[in-house]
UniProtKB/TrEMBL annotation, chain A:
Protein name: Iron ABC transporter ATPase
Keyword tags: ATP-binding, Nucleotide-binding, Transport
InterPro entries: AAA+_ATPase, ABC_transporter-like_ATP-bd, ABC_transporter-like_CS, P-loop_NTPase
Domain of life assignment: Bacteria
GO MF annotation terms: ATP binding; ATP hydrolysis activity
Record keyword Lyase present: no
Domain named ABC transporter: residues: 3-235
From TrEMBL, chain B:
Main location: membrane
Ranges that cross the membrane: 12-34, 78-99, 106-123, 129-153, 165-184, 196-228, 255-285, 297-315, 327-345
Alphabetical UniProt keywords: Cell membrane, Membrane, Transmembrane, Transmembrane helix, Transport
A GO CC term attached to the entry: plasma membrane
Organism field: Acrocarpospora corrugata
GO MF annotation list: transmembrane transporter activity
Family, per entry: Belongs to the binding-protein-dependent transport system permease family. FecCD subfamily.
Example of a GO biological process term: siderophore-iron import into cell
Lineage: Bacteria, Bacillati, Actinomycetota, Actinomycetes, Streptosporangiales
Membrane recorded as keyword: yes
Pfam families registered for this protein in UniProt: FecCD
Protein name: Iron ABC transporter permease
Localization in the cell: Cell membrane
Domain of life: Bacteria
InterPro entries documented for this protein: ABC_BtuC-like, ABC_transptr_permease_BtuC
Automatic annotation (TrEMBL), chain C:
InterPro entries listed in its UniProt record: ABC_Transporter_SBP, ABC_transptr_periplasmic_BD
Organism the protein comes from: Acrocarpospora corrugata
Signal peptide residues on this chain, from the entry's feature table: 1-24
Pfam families: Peripla_BP_2
Keyword Nucleotide-binding among UniProt keywords: no
Protein name: ABC transporter substrate-binding protein
Length: 276, 354, 340
């Protein structure tokens, strides 16, 4: 599924959180959104799964305006793995994954054979079949994240939206999730904190700063020491690892020749812009 | 009691779900018969069974006094207690899902207090504009006005905010309760005072066959509608963000469900007064037994609610026989220990989650 | 879906039984509609209640109603009574007759117990049915195929306290109406008229002119920090007090159990305190309660207590419509005028 984000702006509480972002994600590609906290990654993603309505601009799925479709229709092609939500712990794994079919349900909420097959497939893919009857609340963080991924996959999405999918996960589980996602034949847009993971898994990287898109392209072109330095306020060294860029980062020091205290690392205005 | 709670399974997984539903439904059927046999006037069990069998197989009214008591006074009341219990429990389960708060019930949204204000206004002003229907209609109107005010105050640009819904509901509930108490203290007649207390604590005396059809139809239709679309309720429990991502129109869903809850609660309060605790306790008991999935838990909630209020009413009728206790007192007496048991068991359940 | 819901909403009232107000007021001889020999009386809401024949099986929900029936020679028609407590203050020969009536419950009996007697008429001296929890409501009476008669009060006993002018009761009309209504229904109008005439004669005998002392009606031993329970003007108690030549200190409120602030009591300074004993909410009963009130520090500064003018009457005599209201009236009148 092709995703077109065209000149989208979002205002929350009077603040421009996303400003005039235009971004095209081609069908079948993996796009990573990177940027510091508060740069608008999650907000931009929320507009794509209709949790937020932009104040201006349009979002199109395969050329169709997202907000011109009924909610269920829009959700049918889009699977979402949100940042962890502390709800639904009382449901079993199977019940939770079945919720991924919500947008496909008929008036009477009955599961069709297709629905059941999709749920079984999602459980299989995520290796959760043996856990089907366990309560979500009793699982570990990594397992729970897999349940939520399975829920997203149960809708058989053609566009998968991942908001910080690797948060709170150890290294192995981070890789598990992203490997799994990359092997799917779907378009992926993922907000990622780790530049290394972004460079490793994404076809293109979009860099956001203060709600604006500052760069978009293949990781090697976009994640340069200059851009990273500019956006994250750090000193970055990029070195190639197996054809992909790898990063060594350290705090940027604004007080040359002196020990690098906190006050030397960040400019006051940068602190402010991080606040939201 | 705590020892019992410790031994309670978090989910009675050992009992298969269909078996549980069959057992509970059978228990309800049996309870209806037993409860019809209990009351201040002693009638032999065989005669009670005979009268019920006679009528249920199409027999007409007889002039025997036991026929009058069993068929026209007790049986409709037992049935109404089951219907009201089912409806209140159902309403509680839905509200808990909609506002995503485990201690929510229809009363938390100011519904019953609004109904009481409506009824008490009629009682204290002596208005009888609509004849005998004035009172139940006023109760229903009170409930509708209350939820209307609460909904308007707790929505922002057409979106309902669950936390605000609870805050506004609780605030208005207190306001309405204050209005009722004020009118109670201002009224002249002791019989009006007694009737006001009925509206506050609830009661099923005065039930006859004509009382039954509307509450039964409303509870039946509401239960049907909710059961048919129970998956959507599951999505709603996950929260606005998640249910939006799953393609659910959260706002519309909430309005629809709250409308249904108002209809349920308003109809039941209009015939039974403000019976508390059923809507709070029973959904939790149901979740304990079969888990949180509304497709499994709603049917169990309905049957458990019916059982709970049925026996609470039997206790109200028989404990101080030949006098009668307000049923609200009994639901509290039975409900609080149940609530503590549930809390205890669920406390253990949540310990599993880090 | 919405249409279905709204249809239900509209249908709701239709399915609930109609129940009229409780019967009352002056009997109206049947003119039309109810068939030959039918008696039609008005209930408390002004609706017609028609009797094709005199009732044969009567349940009296309270002793007052039984006392009235017994004085009309209708003892044999009573198949059971509730709340027999008023019998304790009755006198021979009625007391003995009342003792033969089966007691269904010490308080107001519940629906089922009443229905168990298969009554064709249920009588109460209270102004409405269904007050106490579980007691029969009018819908219940309809279910058991019984008619209902109640001792109507002005304003239906339901009025708010703001309008005492319209609900103030200054004579015993409710008592007399109740007797006449029973007389009409049971075809013993002559007996009813005679009883009313006798009672009226006794009433006229006590009516006296002269100074009207300010009388405070007290229903329980006043407790510091709480309002004092008193009877307002829409009550039999107020009527008896007025007929006996007293001025109700709180005639400006209407309620049967009105709250008076202790400060207001001191300000209005009653010359007489009239203790109504035997109310169910008072812990202390009878003369003991009167003694307590006499010694109560909250009332110590009133003229009534200083001058020792604390009288009493049982609620069984002066609270609800009953022929014994006259006993209460005569005693109070005697008390009030003894010192003057």
């Amino acid at each position: 599924m092709r995703l077109d984000i065209d000149d989208v702006s979002v205002t929350l509480g009077g603040q421009d959180v996303v400003a005039e972002v235009s971004l095209t994600v081609s069908s079948g590609t993996f796009t990573a959104l990177v940027g510091p906290n508060g740069s608008g990654k999650s907000t931009l993603l929320r507009t794509v799964y209709r949790a937020l309505r932009p104040v201006s601009g349009t979002i199109r799925l395969d050329g169709r305006d997202l907000w011109s479709m009924p909610a269920a229709h829009a959700a049918r092609g889009v699977g979402v793995l949100m940042q962890e939500q502390h709800a639904g712990f009382e449901f079993t794994v199977a019940e939770t994954v079945a919720l991924g079919r919500t947008a496909h349900l008929g008036f009477f909420d009955r599961l069709t054979t297709t629905d059941r097959a999709a749920i079984a497939e999602a459980l299989d893919r995520t290796g959760l079949a043996p856990y089907a009857e366990r309560r979500v609340g009793g699982l570990s963080g990594g397992e729970r994240q897999r349940v939520l991924l399975a829920r997203a996959l149960a809708g058989r999405p053609r566009l998968l939206i991942l908001d910080e999918p690797t948060n709170h996960l150890d290294v192995r589980h981070q890789l598990d999730i992203l490997e799994l996602v990359r092997d799917l034949d779907v378009t992926v847009v993922a907000a990622l904190h780790s530049l290394d993971l972004a460079a490793t898994y994404a076809d293109t990287v979009a860099v956001l700063k203060e709600g604006r898109l500052v760069a978009h392209g293949p990781a090697a072109d976009v994640l340069t020491p200059t851009t990273i330095g500019e956006v994250f306020q750090v000193e970055a060294t990029v070195h190639g690892v197996g054809g992909r860029p790898g990063f060594v980062l350290k705090p940027r020091c604004l007080c040359p020749g002196r020990p690098c205290h906190w006050s030397c690392r960040t400019r006051p205005e940068a602190l402010l812009s991080d606040a939201h | 009691m705590i020892a019992i709670a410790r031994r309670l399974p978090v989910r009675a997984a050992a009992v298969p779900y269909p078996a549980l539903v069959v057992v509970l439904t059978a228990a309800l059927g049996l309870s209806v018969v037993i409860a019809t046999g209990l009351g201040p006037v002693g009638i032999p069990a065989g005669e009670v069974a005979g009268i019920l069998a006679h009528h249920l197989t199409g027999g007409g009214d007889s002039t025997a006094v036991s026929d009058l008591i069993v068929w026209r006074i007790r049986f409709p009341r037992v049935l109404l207690s089951a219907v009201a219990g089912a409806g209140l429990a159902l309403a509680g389960a839905i509200v808990q899902g909609v506002v995503r708060n485990p201690v929510a019930d229809p009363y938390l949204l100011g519904l019953s207090h609004g109904a009481s204000v409506g009824a008490v206004l009629v009682l204290t002003t002596g208005t009888t504009v609509l004849g005998a229907l004035t009172l139940p209609l006023a109760a229903f109107a009170g409930a509708s006005v209350a939820i209307g005010v609460v909904l308007v105050m707790s929505s922002l640009q057409g979106r309902l905010l669950p936390v605000r819904l609870i805050l506004v509901g609780v605030a208005f509930g207190h306001l309405f309760a204050g209005v009722t108490s004020f009118m109670l203290s201002r009224t002249d007649s002791s019989s009006a005072q007694q009737q006001i207390i009925f509206w506050l604590l609830g009661g099923l005396s005065g039930t006859n066959w004509a009382t039954l059809p509307i509450p039964s139809a409303v509870v039946g239709v509401a239960a049907g509608l909710l059961l048919l679309r129970a998956r959507r309720l599951n999505a709603l429990v996950l929260g606005e963000e998640a249910s939006a991502a799953l393609g659910l129109n959260t706002g519309r869903q909430r309005w629809y469900l709250l409308l249904l809850v108002t209809l349920l609660t308003g109809t039941i309060v209009a015939v039974s007064g403000g019976i508390g605790f059923v809507g709070l306790i029973v959904p939790h008991l149901a979740r304990m037994l079969v888990g949180a999935d509304h497709r499994r838990m709603l049917p169990v909630t309905v049957v458990l609610g019916a059982l709970f209020l049925l026996w609470a009413d039997v206790a109200a009728r028989t404990l101080t026989s030949p006098a009668e206790l307000p049923i609200g007192v009994l639901t509290a007496f039975l409900g609080v220990p149940c609530f503590l048991l549930v809390m205890r068991a669920r406390g253990l359940a949540t310990q599993e989650t880090p | 879906m919405m249409r279905r819901l709204s249809t239900l909403l509209i249908a709701l009232p239709l399915a609930l039984t109609a129940c009229g107000g409780a019967p009352s007021a002056t009997p109206v001889p049947a003119a039309t509609g109810a068939g030959a020999g039918a008696v039609v009386v008005k209930d408390c809401a002004g609706q017609d209640v028609s009797f094709a024949a005199a009732p044969e099986r009567v349940v009296t929900l309270d002793g007052y109603a039984a006392q009235t029936m017994v004085r009309l020679g209708l003892t044999a028609k009573i198949v059971g009574t509730g709340f027999p407590a008023p019998f304790t203050v009755d006198t021979s020969p009625y007391k003995e007759e009342l003792a033969t009536i089966p007691v269904l419950a010490e308080r107001i009996p519940v629906t089922e117990v009443v229905a168990g007697q298969r009554p064709d008429l249920v009588v109460t001296s209270f102004s409405t049915f269904g007050g106490p929890v579980g007691s029969p409501k009018e819908a219940d009476l309809a279910t058991m195929n019984a008619k209902g008669l109640a001792g109507c009060m002005p304003g239906g006993g339901m009025a708010m306290g703001e309008t005492p002018s319209t609900s103030a009761l200054t004579d015993l009309t409710p008592t007399y109406d109740f007797i006449r209504k029973l007389g009409a229904v049971f075809g013993v109008r002559d007996r009813a008229e005679k009883l009313v005439t006798d009672l009226r004669a006794r009433q006229s005998a006590v009516t006296s002119d002269g100074a009207r002392p300010r009388v405070m009606i007290v229903q329980d031993d006043p407790v510091a920090g709480q309002p004092i329970k008193t009877s307002g003007s829409a009550t039999i108690t107020h009527a008896i007090l007025t007929l006996a030549g007293g001025e109700n200190l709180f005639g400006d409120v209407g309620s049967m159990h009105a709250d008076a602030s202790p400060e207001e009591v001191v300000k209005r300074d009653p010359q007489v305190i009239w203790v109504i004993t035997d109310y169910s909410f008072a812990k202390i009963k009878g003369q003991e309660l009167v003694e307590k009130v006499r010694q109560n520090p909250l009332l110590a500064e009133t003229t009534a207590v200083k001058e020792g003018k604390v009288f009493s009457a049982s609620q069984y005599l002066v609270a609800f419509p009953s022929p014994l209201n006259l006993d209460g009236l005569e005693k109070l009148a005697a008390d009030l005028h003894a010192g003057s």
